[in-house]
Amino acid sequence: MRKNLLNLDQYKINNSELIQNINKIKKLEWKQGLYEKQSWGHPLHRIGPYVGRIKPAFAHFLIKYLTKEGQTILDPFCGIGTICLEGSLMKRNFYGYDLNPYAIHIAEAKIYKKINLEKIISEIKKTKINTKKINLRNIPKWVKNYYNSKTLKEILFFLDHFKKKRSKFLYGCLLAISQGHRPGHLSKPCAWTLPYKPRPDDPGEYRSVKPRLISKILRNYRDIKEPQGKMVIKKIDARKLPNKNQSIDAIITSPPYLNTLDYVNSHRLRLAICGHYEKNNLSKLKNKLIQNKKNYLSEMEKVIREIFRVLKNGGICCFVVGDHFEDNGKVINTSRLLLNIFKRYNFDFLDIIEDKIPVNKSVQKKTLKIKSDRIFVLKKNAQY
User: Fold this and answer.
1) Which of 16, 28, 180, 356 has a CA-to-CA distance to 134 between 20 and 30 Å?
2) Is CATH 3.40.50.150 correct for 51-106+228-269+287-380?
3) Where are the domains of the chain?
4) Nearest alpha carbon to residue 231 among 95, 365, 123
5) What pLDDT is attached to residue 382?
6) pTM above the 0.90 mark?
7) Which residues, including other chains, have CB under 8 Å from residue 242's CB and lie 6 or more apart?
């Protein structure tokens, strides 16, 4: 049943409305005008960073052209919930799953719940900070090197406080500003995404949590548009989806890039701040993620099998995947490898769109060659 997909045109099916919409995607509107700006979109999109996340404008146009209002959409690799949030703003109902605890915390912070800003801010100001029970003895030295000890204790106090109160929005906001290079961040000067080592001679100034957290809340919540669709975020393995058979209208996702991005190490400081710093546990998390070249395709087949099960007949599946560069310079087109698997599960191939992405020197360590995201769109054959 394995077929060579080198000549992709032979697998295309004729569906006039879908083809018209896919042709609109090919215009790459997210790279034009205001959409091109990283800051475009809803303020909740900007709660926290994530390596390899797609731009909100990119998600916007995929959702606009491939789904309809009221549909139920799934992102089985949701990361920090960019696709989910944008879909809920566009009156779609979204399920988002991921295994990375940091990603889940940020994605959960984007689930809209109407709050009284004045009341929330007043409560934070009135909260008495008691760090006597905060013990830094078990915190790894490399983590403590990023902070003034008093600041670190305050961060841990408030994270525990918000966890007990189930204040996911506040927890996510604080976790986000726990690392960064601006005065509003709480660590020693450090990159917003990848935590480069702080200067060894930097003693670390005390940075009070309360005013910085309040500023963060105001940046991400004031004057926001209320989402119209339901948004569910859960820590779930994409190989074991909880959704019922044929319950999902469409899948839009960007799965882990093959052996390219390190989703654990890149977020190691924020993972540590929210309690995930034990090497054994982090190794287990890393092994659970689908990235390893040796078993990438076999593990992705488990995901595709689940996608086939939960997707309605005639449902759309859109994957955004990146190329992989070998040490010898060879380029692996991951999308074609995955398409071979989809074909075995009776998905009709609609089209593939190449989107060249700029080099990010802070992330791409192995190569500075131009990479491409490839957007491929499929339809579950209605006969199955």
Assistant:
1) 180
2) yes
3) 51-106+228-269+287-380, 117-221
4) 95
5) 67
6) yes
7) 234, 236
